Amino acid sequence: MSNNWHDEVLADVEAGVRINDRHIVDRIRQAVLMQRLPPGTRLPEVALGEIFGVSRSVVRKALTRLASDHVITQQPNQVARVSAPSIEETREIFAARRLIEGEVVALLAGKLDHDQCRTVASYIEAECQAHLDDDEAQRIEHSLAIHHYLADHSPNRTLGAMLSDLILCTSIVIALYKRAGLASCYLENDHAELLALLERSDAEGARHCVQTHLTALEALLDLRPQDKSIDLAAIFGKTG
Amino acid sequence: MSNNWHDEVLADVEAGVRINDRHIVDRIRQAVLMQRLPPGTRLPEVALGEIFGVSRSVVRKALTRLASDHVITQQPNQVARVSAPSIEETREIFAARRLIEGEVVALLAGKLDHDQCRTVASYIEAECQAHLDDDEAQRIEHSLAIHHYLADHSPNRTLGAMLSDLILCTSIVIALYKRAGLASCYLENDHAELLALLERSDAEGARHCVQTHLTALEALLDLRPQDKSIDLAAIFGKTG
DNA sequence: CTATTCGATTTTGTATACAATGAATGTCCA
DNA sequence: TGGACATTCATTGTATACAAAATCGAATAG
Fold first, then answer.
1. Per residue in A28-41, is it b (16+ CB within 10 Å) or e — as a string?
2. Domains, chain B, with CATH or none
3. Which residues of B touch A61 (CB under 8 A)?
4. pLDDT digit string (tens) for B85-125?
5. Would you give the DSSP letter of residue A42?
């Protein structure tokens, strides 16, 4: 499972790409984003150092930054792990993202020029196509591209940076709490509708559209209490 | 100027307090918050290491975290400095804080119990008293205590953490852009009014109150373009 | 007098060694 | 059998050494 990721990194090293802590941060963020590093994954410093071909110093710096962004969780004298937010935190993350992404798209309404709208449109198109092809990995990648594009072009860069972090956290909790039977978290038309509202300079419409979209996304998750712990008891319980 | 800060740290070391990176982060955050470390201040690693009695490793970790929170600015191979946001960034910080602190107090309306309200009331009282005493340092400390208390008690902890960072950034830009003649950024009654609205469970009233408060605070700053650079030209200009 | 280049110093970047802590496993005794 | 304890291994915490880069100043050429 994590072999793919490992191999890609090795390819970089062989290609003589200069690896610094920023690179490592980006790589791990990307892997978490694409759900190739599931929540709870152990991230020992020496292992990462060997994979990226650097010493622990660089890895540690990268891990510190990732911890600040809540991508990983560090406790003293314990290995870093990909964050696994609780159900309550998950709801809070969605609420925060509704507030901030809503504001960002409201600020963005009418501010994208023709070329930028076409770029977003191409992402939406690609997402739809990937969905038709049943290529979930591709679909997630294109979906994230849309939201990251909005974050990166936020007129308010402070809010844009916050949104980037929240997109990452959202991706983590989706990987954690996605309903078992659900193949994909695809919501048809939402993105296209948002783009139309942005082009029409309808700030409040765009805000509402995004907030509805995120609420629908949250509703696709299984956020009922007691989940993981009960599994073991149910499978190996005393009745067996 | 920074001797005060230096001495305090030494006192800690002598008292045998265990210094780790978190301690250093808190100390520097506090110093920035209290405007004892003005924007642009150099923060060399070895100097900090000697002051806190630790090696560069620990200092570097602390600096990395501070950079993630935008408290300091790091560029490769250059000494870290206390952040000095541009005028545009300053406006964005205030806009972001209006959005987020507004939401936090709206969520908080009616949620504080009697004791918590009394705690906030005591901070407000202390701020007012410090203002009457012309003790600006104390006034800032109590004012920050109010806002940090709200951030720490936010029902949505994600938004609360974001607000904490924004309070810090706000403190930095106030130190940077405070109008020359202005002794203090004290806005009478705003905090008391906010508390009354929170007790009355008036969420939208509280949101509006905070947003107005922050807009008034921003208006006290001198955010006209061309400031620092023109000074030099005016003073040492070719006409001299 | 100004601009530029060179060198010395300061400061950060990285690797590594060693200490300290934690987790896991195995052992002993009741 | 079952639990307390000790040992071992894995992993992080910290300090330090050395390399690389930037900054500052002085000397020099125009």
1. bbbbbbbbbbebeb
2. 3-82 (1.10.10.10), 87-219 (1.20.120.530)
3. 60-61, 64
4. 999 999 999 999 999 999 999 999 999 999 999 999 999 99
5. E
Q: Measured between alpha carbons, how far is B154 from B106 in angstroms, rounded to an integer?
A: 10
Å: A58 CA to C29 C1': 48
Task: State how beta strands B72-73 and A72-73 pair.
Answer: unpaired
Per-residue buried b or exposed e for B103-138, using 16+ beta carbons within 10 Å of the residue's own CB: bbbbbbbeebeeeeeebbbebbebbbebbeeeeeee
Residue A237 CA, nucleotide D4 C1', distance (Å):
27
Tokens of A159: 């809010």
Picking from B64, B89, B99, the nearest residue to A64 by CB comes out as B64
Tell me if B92 and A158 make a contact (CB, 8 A cut-off).
Answer: yes
- pLDDT, one tens digit per residue, over A139-187 is 999 999 999 999 999 999 999 999 999 999 999 999 899 887 776 778 8
Burial annotation A78-97 (CB, 10 A radius, 16+ → b, else e): eebbbbbbebebbbbbbbbb
Judge whether A62 and A44 are in contact, CB under 8 Å: no
Radius of gyration of the CA atoms of chain B, in A:
19
- Helix pair angle (A56-68, A45-52), 10° resolution: 110
CB contact under 8 A, B89 and A157: yes
Chain A residues contacting B via beta carbons under 8 Å? 60-61, 64-65, 68-69, 89, 92-93, 95-96, 99-100, 103, 156-159, 162, 166, 169
Through-space distance between the first and last CA atoms of chain A, rounded to whole angstroms: 31
- List the one residue out of A186, A185, A166 whose CA is nearest residue A94: A166
Going through A62-174 in order, the beta strands assigned E by DSSP cover 72-73, 80-82
Instruction: Identify any residues that bridge with B82 across adjacent strands, giving them in sequence order.
Output: B72
Q: Is the CB of A52 under 7 A from strand C?
A: no
DSSP classification of residue B237 = -
Q: How far is B35 from chain A (nearest CA, A)?
A: 22
For residues A235 and A28, the model is more confident at A28
Q: Two tokens at B29?
A: 């955050």
The nt closest to A75 (CA vs C1′) is D12
Residue A19 and residue A44: Cα distance in Å, rounded?
A: 18
Q: Which residues of A touch B95 (CB under 8 A)?
A: 156, 158-159
